[in-house]
């Protein structure tokens, strides 16, 4: 915004100067970065594809003195929805996103807008920080879109009380308590099931179990309540327990961010999944700059090539409000 400098009140031949400028750090979001990091797996140094394989369990036979170990006993099974037996499930995720962020500033022009080298460096730091912030904002929104776009291994419905027509404070509190309890109980039920061998939670009907430390719970606000937090031991005062007690990682998606998603479904409460079920991985992240002598501009750029996809052979469960 353009502005006019004020004439000096006491010496009319002088013009007052702007001697104070400030730039505030509003381009950093640790919460956004933590969510992206939670979904990020190993980068690819060579190649452009990750291959994921799962095997069925072998059969258990009755032993007899005529039993023979000769022959081919490679375990096979018929995947859910399939017609033929297979001895392995194989999926691939491939680098398919190639993005570029560009930004320009003119150092010579900048020198005329600041008081010192410190001011110029501070401004440039914000310019470069905005590039990283734009990348993180883009990836975060992409992850939220993916959460609402994929098909999960199982859907679990939770019957919640409709609070739209409840007005009395005591009734509102009672209904909230009941709904919170139902959500936490449903989560506990599925967690218990996932930690034991089951074929219910993946696309192919593979028999699997998941360790608590390999689970991730994604909660869509406003459903992260005290009962859910207590369930994941986040409020335990013991540092030893909170750091070492095996529990799923919890990621919270704010209601405003969720509602902006292309496939937003207001009935989705949470998703419990293997931590690598939905994953992001990079092939290239490269930031650089070059000086254009014809314009005296410094052009900054950031290349990032990545894949964001779902491994459907890994267990997952989507919790929804029962209609």
Strand content: 15-25%
Spatial arrangement of strands, main beta sheet: 4-10-7-5-6
- Indicate the low-confidence ranges by residue numbers: 234-241
Shape assignment = flat
> How far apart lie the N and C ends?
51 Å
How does the major sheet shape up?
5 strands, mixed
Secondary-structure element order, N to C: HEEEHHEHEHHEHEEEE
What percent of the residues sit in helical stretches (DSSP H or I)?
25-40%
Number of helices: 7
Number of domains: 2
Given helix and strand content, the structural type is alpha+beta
Nearest-angstrom radius of gyration? 27 Å
The whole-number mean of residue pLDDT values reads 88
Number of strands: 10
What would your notes on this structure say?
- There is one protein chain.
- By secondary structure, the chain is of the alpha+beta class.
- It folds into two domains: 33-56 and 80-138 and 284-307, no CATH class; 154-282 and 311-321, no CATH class.
- Helix content is 28%, strand content 25%.
- It is built from seven helices and ten strands.
- The strands form three sheets. A five-stranded mixed sheet has the order 4-10-7-5-6, sandwiched between helices.
- The longest helix is centred in the middle third of the chain and has 33 residues, at 117-149.
- It is flat.
- Residues 234-241 have low confidence and may be disordered.
Short description:
This protein is α+β, with helices and mostly antiparallel strands.
Keywords:
single chain, alpha+beta, 5-stranded mixed beta sheet, 3-stranded antiparallel beta sheet
């Amino acid at each position: 915004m353009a502005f006019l400098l004020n004439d000096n009140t006491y010496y009319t031949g002088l013009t007052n100067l702007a001697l104070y400028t400030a730039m505030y750090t509003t381009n950093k979001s640790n919460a956004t970065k933590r969510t992206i990091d939670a979904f990020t797996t190993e980068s690819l140094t060579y190649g452009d594809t990750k291959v994921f394989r799962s095997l069925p369990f072998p059969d258990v036979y009755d032993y007899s003195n005529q039993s023979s170990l000769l022959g081919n006993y490679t375990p096979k099974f018929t995947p859910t929805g399939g017609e033929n037996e297979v001895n392995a499930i194989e999926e691939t995720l491939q680098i398919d996103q190639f993005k570029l962020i560009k930004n320009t500033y003119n150092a010579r022009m900048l020198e005329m807008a600041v008081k010192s080298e410190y001011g110029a460096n501070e401004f440039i730091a914000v310019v470069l920080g905005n590039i990283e912030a734009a990348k993180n904002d883009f990836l975060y929104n992409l992850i939220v879109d993916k959460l609402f776009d994929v098909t999960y291994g199982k859907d679990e419905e939770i019957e919640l009380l409709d609070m739209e027509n409840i007005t009395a404070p005591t009734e509102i509190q009672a209904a909230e308590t009941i709904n919170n309890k139902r959500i936490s109980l449903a989560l506990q039920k599925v967690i218990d099931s996932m930690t034991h061998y089951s074929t219910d939670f993946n696309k192919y009907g593979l028999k699997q179990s998941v360790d608590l430390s390999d689970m991730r719970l994604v909660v869509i606000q406003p459903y992260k309540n005290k009962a859910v937090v207590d369930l994941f031991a986040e409020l335990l005062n013991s540092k030893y327990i909170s750091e070492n007690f095996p529990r799923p990682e919890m990621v919270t998606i704010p209601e405003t961010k969720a509602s902006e998603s292309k496939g937003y479904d207001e009935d989705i409460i949470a998703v419990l999944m293997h931590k690598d079920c939905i994953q992001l991985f990079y092939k290239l992240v490269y930031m650089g700059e070059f000086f254009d002598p014809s314009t005296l501009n410094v052009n900054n750029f950031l290349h990032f090539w990545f894949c964001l996809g779902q491994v459907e052979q890994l267990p997952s469960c989507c919790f929804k409000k029962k209609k």
